[in-house]
Amino acid sequence: FDILRCTFIHQLNEAVQNHTPDVIAVDEIGTAKEVQAARSIAQRGVKLLATAHGSSFHDILREPILRQLLGGVQAVTIGDMQARDKYYGKKVIAQRSGMPTFQVVIELSKGYFSANVYTNVGQYIDKWLAGQQCIREHRTQQ
What we know:
By secondary structure, the chain is α+β, with helices and mostly antiparallel strands. Helix content is about 35%, strand content about 25%. It has five helices and seven strands, in the order αβαβαβαβββαβ. It has a three-stranded antiparallel sheet with strand order 5-6-7, with no helix packed on it. The chain is globular, with a radius of gyration of 17 Å. The mean pLDDT is about 85.
């Protein structure tokens, strides 16, 4: 299985380099190498449609490997004044460490008849990490 996945990752990178696709679709990103390949593809300007399995968007944010698709999270030490003024005296806060691979995330639930749509993923994650109210769009199939 690992050999097949490594070959698949190599083929993805080769396809981007040699065939300049507009869009690449990938099912079930789950390993660190797959995350790295997905980020590389997106950074080259190729639109990426992909799945990553988790029970929710927020679970993906808590999962160390997959959260890199959403920009990653890092602990940051802030100054005394900023801690006092913005973070109730908290000196170490969580911040997004990079750009998300995806601008939009769609979270399927309830037997695929309902979905949460997260637009502007970077902004959503920044607000969520800061403990602010986050807005997502909820859609259902009638």
